[in-house]
Write a structure and sequence with these properties.
It is globular and about 50 Å long. Helix 1 (7-17) packs across helix 2. The protein has 109 residues and is mainly α. The chain has 6 helices and no strands.
């Protein structure tokens, strides 16, 4: 779609899936099916449309049963473990013409 990924997004993707997969996804713009997202580590699970709402509800309820202080500590630990997020920018996030062409391509496939 011609959207420039932010350095923070690129860094996170590299940390999650590794540099080779991150490069492939960035360079091709390819979207992953749910099972492929699980395989690469981008998703924890893949569920059918019919089970999505109940799976989300169950996960939210499970998290909600945890002490707030424990959740806060876990979040802080995970942020610290992944390192600082790059904050610099690379210029405009999108080229309007490329975005329009990309959307038109998706709509006509």
């Amino acid at each position: 779609l011609g959207i420039r990924p932010s350095p923070a997004f690129a860094a996170r993707l590299v940390r999650v899936v590794g540099p080779a997969v991150a490069a492939e996804l960035h360079y091709t713009g390819r979207l992953l099916q749910g099972s492929d997202a699980v395989t690469t580590g981008l998703a924890n699970r893949c569920v059918t449309d019919e089970l999505l709402a109940s799976n989300v509800r169950d996960l939210v309820e499970e998290i909600g049963r945890q002490p707030t202080s424990a959740l806060r500590a876990a979040k802080e630990a995970l942020i610290a473990a992944t390192g600082p997020t790059p904050r610099h920018t690379l210029g405009p996030a999108v080229n309007l013409r490329d975005l329009q062409l990309g959307i038109a391509k998706i709509l006509h496939t």
